[in-house]
Every structure is written in C-alpha cells, then in structure tokens.
Amino acid sequence: MRIRAALLAVLLTAVGCGSGDTGAASDPNAALKVGVSPVPHAQVLRYVADNLAAAKGLKIEVVEFTDYVQPNTALVDGSLDANYFQTVPYLDTFKAESGAPLEWIGPVHIEPLGVYSKKHKSLADLPSGGKVAVANDATNEARGLKLLQDKGVIKVKPGSEATATVRDIVENPKNLEFVELEAAQLPRSLDDTDASVVNGNYAIDAQLNPAEDALVLEKAEGNPNANGLVTRAELKDDKRIKDLLDLLQSQQVKDYIKQEFSGSVLAV
C-alpha cells in the first residue's frame, strides 16, 4: 500500500520532532513492545515470549496490526520498540518514501507468496480475459508479478522486475484483467476473481494452506523476501533487541515453525 500524503506528513513530523513514547529507549527494564501481523508473526513471537524470553531476562509485549503501514508508523513515533512483519525490499521502499530512521536487524522466516483460485485447478486453466488480483503495495505487487512471470503467465518490461506494477506488463497472452487491492483484502477477493496472488500470512489467516492450496508458490531458495526484525536507529545496538533476534533465529523457533506451519512458513 503506497504511503498517502497525510500519512507521510505524520511520519516526517515524527522523525523530525522525535517520538512521543520512547518505550525501551528510555527504560532498559521496560518490556519490548513489538508490532506484528497476527499470523504467523504473533504466533511465533508469543512462543518466544512464553517459552524462551525469561532465560534472557526479556519481557515482550506483543502488539498486533492487520495492515502493513501501522507497524512502521508506530515504530517511528515511539509507540513500538521493534516490529516483525516485513521484508527488506518493503522496508527499503518505506524508508525511501518516508525518510524514517528504521534499521533491519535480521531475518526470521519466509512466507512463500502464492497464487490461489476457487475456480481453477492450475494457471493453465485461467480463461482469456480472466480477472487476477495482486497487492497494491510496491514491493508485493512486483513480487506477485515476478511469480506470474516465472510461471509463464505474463512478461514485464525488462529491468522493471524489482519495481514492476501492472503498467509494466508487456506480454499478456490471455489478456488477463489485473486488479490491485490492499494485501489484506486478497483472500476475500477469491470469490470475485479467477485467481489472486496472496501473501503467506494473509493466506494462513484466511485458513488457506499455502503448501496444499496454492496453484503455485514462490521458491524459498535464494528468496530475498524473508520477514525479519526491525527497530529504530537508536535501538539497533540495544542488547535486548539483539537477544530477541537470537531467540527468533534459535533452533527452538525453527523447530516450532516447522511443526506449527507444516511448510507454509519456512524458517531461515
């Protein structure tokens, strides 16, 4: 979802004037407030908070968000101390548009992007003129179009792959109609589309099993779209942030992800 002018103004004000609630930055004994998407991020973080954090003396407050903008704006304004929901490409786009002083700390897992349909069993079955929904935020739209290109459905303008939108499609043999929607709305669009390209977290939240229900999935190998831990610049060297990343990347968490999500979420 591209940052609207009013939202951008709020961000720049927060960056320029400082945060209103510095949380962990002002009290080293305070609980870390970490913003997450409900699935799978909140589940993983709660596993850490309930089972692993005490060993490192960490206190973690899990704060859930249902979109991809608020976890960053809340981190910028100091309402959060970290978030765990986004990829490096998404963070880079956000920082470029907002000037927000956010820092990538490290990767945790990959949610393979998938193409889903309630009407068709394969991409080959998509009809001429069929409707396909993709995310309307810059990172996930390009990611979805790349998946469709990799599977031979379309081609985008050479050199545009990392930032492609539907306007960059140069070959569309089936004359598919592309609809851009907020990522959270994509699972609900399946009743009205021939196929929709859905982020892994929203697919799981909608009771879809990416490993079984997707017509096609992204490959995990070499995938730059790992979800990871992000914080503000002044907290990047905070021991508690580093301890949290250690726990999120621990073998215990890898085992939990494997058992809980059965291949729909892949630890890195």
From TrEMBL:
It is found in: Membrane. Keywords: Lipoprotein, Membrane, Palmitate, Signal. It is a lipid-anchor. Residues 1-24 form the signal peptide. It holds the Pfam family Lipoprotein_9. PROSITE patterns: PROKAR_LIPOPROTEIN. It comes from the Bacteria. InterPro entries: Lipoprotein_NlpA (IPR004872). Belongs to the nlpA lipoprotein family. This is Lipoprotein. It comes from Saccharothrix hoggarensis. The lineage of its organism: Bacteria, Bacillati, Actinomycetota, Actinomycetes, Pseudonocardiales.
